């Protein structure tokens, strides 16, 4: 093996200087840097990002060229004639990537082993680079990508296939500016997971991955929220309802909780309330389209509280399974004094005008919410849509059944408006369901990978009420807890600076495409080992589909060219057209 690695035809020069981060290589003749072919393989020594191997006494080293220059004393003699006539002695700077044992050629990072001054340096063959790429992971796993990427190197086209464990087990982020190729990477990785019979949930805020869904999703697992499916409000937790209605904590929040509890009691135990015959116990009033509420003013208190307390566990279930059309009226009915005056203390009191005044804005918000066209399109407050086409119901079935391996669960939220933080709340609800299912231990044997495209749209978001800020934290909780349950997260974003630090700090793999913004580059820099910090200087120059891959599970940072996916997302920028101008000109000619 040594002979095939250290061929004299590939000799470059000698190590002349060593420090902690890189080595200097003295090239005895500039002809060693000439372009040539050897055994059908093209070599060009000294090119930036070209791989080199160093022959140590007991162990070998693989490195990458990071700079090239001519010594200062020889620069004084530079001229076009001198370049043709004289021989120069260039100096190369190379970063040591890994050290390898001559016996088994396994690669390891080391802060102890360095080559000696005078060690011979050779250009790395394509075969050796491929061997390096195959051993780049800290631990070997059998389930790997196929046709994912190739290493970027002047004299190598080595394939780069990484295990899903290395990519996703500590969560992943695909970062890059518009048009840099992050959608290609996302589509490629999703296809790879599905072709290996893995479960994948994709949250698509733009609809650009619909072709992928057409290929890998059954109709019942292809969700276009607000068009093909709803997210029934009955599946909302009380916290979700609070996010939508934004009650003030002083008077509004307690009355909203009481109103929800009353309407749940009415739905589940209406017969018990009706069977109480006396006028003081006639609690139910019906208005409009069979919309029922509980009226308390002047009604017997003890009988009502007995029914409530006897069934408190059932009405305290954390969902919204009640008729929300009566919620505004029910909040108003809750604004009464707890008891009547004097001899009437066994009854609920009269209207509490002060509390009702405090709740007036909440009542208005509820009425606006329930009657809003866009909210009804998503949450079906008016209960006119098909409940069988419910996102939560479909997602639960997908997550709990073992028959959906290799099938994509696709959620298109492009039709969910941004107004009133509706999109953020919807995606947070999806995140809560994923995490709660994971906590039940369902993904221990069959992990689920969640892709959140354009994650900056709905992460690091909050809902502002009159008096407080409620943070939407489902995906931050997934980032912190999901790994131990088998729920892995992959976010895609062009604005990493808008992603919460609580999520970024949990991400182990970064696939970084072209970035220009300085703050975004600094975020990537802090994710890299110290010795690789200069890599961020490459970020603005990366071409479409080119990326820097760094991971806690890899021995080194890699420059890669992502393979064009078989199913391309619809992410092309519209092109200016002169069709209208041509039509106008034709009309003028006529």
Any chance you could write out the topology, listing elements then pairs?
Layout: H1 2-5, E1 11-18, E2 22-26, E3 35-38, E4 41-44, E5 51-55, E6 59-69, H2 72-75, H3 80-85, E7 91-101, E8 107-108, E9 120-123, H4 126-134, E10 149-151, E11 159-160, H5 164-168, E12 172-175, H6 182-195, E13 199-204, H7 210-216, E14 222-224, H8 238-245, H9 252-268, H10 270-274, E15 284-287, E16 291-294, H11 301-310, H12 312-315, H13 327-334, H14 353-371, H15 373-379, H16 391-400, E17 408-412, H17 422-439, E18 448-452, E19 462-464, E20 469-471, H18 474-485, E21 487-493, H19 501-504, E22 509-512, H20 518-526, E23 546-551, E24 558-562, H21 579-589
Parallel strand pairs: 12-21, 12-22, 13-17, 13-18, 14-17, 18-21
Antiparallel strand pairs: 1-2, 1-9, 2-7, 3-4, 5-6, 5-9, 6-7, 7-8, 10-11, 10-24, 15-16, 19-20, 22-23, 23-24
Fraction of residues in β-strands: 15-25%
Q: Termini, distance in Å?
A: 78 Å
The tally of structural domains comes to 3
Derived structural class: alpha+beta
**Average of pLDDT:** 87
Continuous helix count: 21
The biggest beta sheet reads: 11 strands, mixed
Output the strand order for the largest sheet: 11-10-24-23-22-12-21-18-13-17-14
CATH architecture of the largest domain: 3-Layer(aba) Sandwich
**What's the CATH H-level superfamily name of the largest domain?**
P-loop containing nucleotide triphosphate hydrolases
Overall body shape: elongated
Briefly note the CATH topology name of the largest domain: Rossmann fold
**Assigned CATH class of the largest domain:** Alpha Beta
Uncertain ranges: none
Count of distinct strands: 24
Overall helicity? 25-40%
Indicate the radius of gyration in whole angstroms: 33 Å
């Amino acid at each position: 093996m040594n002979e095939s690695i250290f061929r004299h035809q590939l000799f470059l020069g000698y190590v002349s200087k060593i420090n902690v981060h890189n080595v200097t290589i003295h090239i005895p003749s500039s002809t060693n840097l000439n372009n040539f072919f050897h055994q059908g393989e093209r070599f060009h020594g000294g090119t930036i990002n070209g791989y080199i191997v160093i022959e140590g006494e007991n162990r070998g080293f693989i490195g990458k060229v990071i700079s090239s220059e001519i010594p200062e004393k020889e620069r004084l003699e530079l001229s076009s004639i001198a370049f043709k006539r004289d021989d120069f002695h260039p100096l190369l700077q190379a970063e040591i990537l890994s050290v390898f044992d001559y016996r088994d050629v396994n690669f390891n990072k080391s802060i102890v082993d360095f080559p000696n001054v005078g060690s011979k340096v050779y250009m790395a063959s394509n075969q050796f680079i491929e061997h390096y790429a195959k051993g780049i992971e800290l631990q070997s796993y059998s389930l790997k990508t196929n046709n994912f990427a190739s290493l970027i190197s002047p004299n190598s086209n080595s394939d780069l296939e990484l295990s899903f464990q290395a990519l996703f087990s500590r969560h992943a982020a695909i970062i890059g500016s518009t048009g840099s190729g992050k959608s290609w990477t996302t589509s490629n990785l999703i296809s790879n997971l599905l072709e290996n019979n893995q479960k994948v949930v994709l949250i698509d805020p733009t609809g650009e991955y619909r072709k992928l869904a057409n290929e890998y999703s059954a109709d019942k697992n292809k969700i276009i929220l607000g068009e093909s499916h709803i997210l029934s409000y009955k599946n909302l937790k009380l916290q979700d309802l609070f996010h939508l209605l934004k009650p003030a904590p002083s008077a509004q929040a307690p009355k909203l909780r009481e109103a929800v509890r009353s309407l749940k009691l009415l739905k589940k135990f209406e017969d018990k309330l009706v069977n109480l015959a006396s006028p003081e116990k006639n609690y139910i009033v019906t208005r409009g389209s069979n919309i029922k509420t509980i009226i308390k003013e002047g009604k017997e208190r003890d009988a009502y509280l007995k029914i409530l307390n006897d069934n408190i566990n059932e009405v305290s279930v954390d969902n919204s399974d009640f008729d929300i059309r009566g919620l505004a009226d029910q909040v108003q009915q809750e604004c009464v004094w707890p008891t009547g005056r004097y001899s009437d203390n066994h009854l609920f009191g009269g209207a509490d005008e002060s509390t009702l005044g405090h709740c007036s804005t909440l009542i208005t918000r509820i009425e606006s919410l329930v009657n809003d066209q866009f909210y009804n399109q998503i949450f079906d407050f008016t209960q006119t849509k098909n409940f069988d086409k419910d996102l939560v119901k479909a997602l639960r079935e997908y997550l709990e059944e073992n028959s959906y391996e290799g099938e994509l669960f696709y959620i298109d939220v492009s039709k969910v408006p941004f107004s009133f933080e509706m999109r953020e709340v919807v995606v947070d609800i999806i995140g809560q369901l994923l995490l709660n299912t994971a906590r039940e231990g369902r993904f221990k044997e069959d992990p689920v990978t969640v892709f959140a495209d354009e994650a900056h749209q709905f992460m690091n978001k909050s809902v502002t009420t009159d008096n407080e800020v409620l943070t939407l934290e489902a995906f931050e909780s997934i980032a912190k807890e999901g790994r131990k349950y088998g729920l892995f997260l992959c976010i895609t974003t062009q604005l990493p600076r808008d992603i919460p630090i609580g999520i970024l700090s949990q991400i182990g793999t970064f696939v970084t495409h072209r970035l220009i913004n300085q703050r975004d580059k600094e975020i990537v820099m802090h994710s890299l080992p110290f010795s690789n910090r200069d890599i961020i200087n490459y970020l603005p120059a990366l071409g479409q589909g080119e990326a820097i891959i760094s991971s806690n599970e890899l021995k080194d940072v890699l420059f890669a060219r992502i393979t064009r996916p078989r199913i391309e997302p619809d992410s092309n920028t519209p092109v200016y057209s002169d069709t209208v101008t041509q039509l106008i000109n034709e009309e003028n000619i006529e």
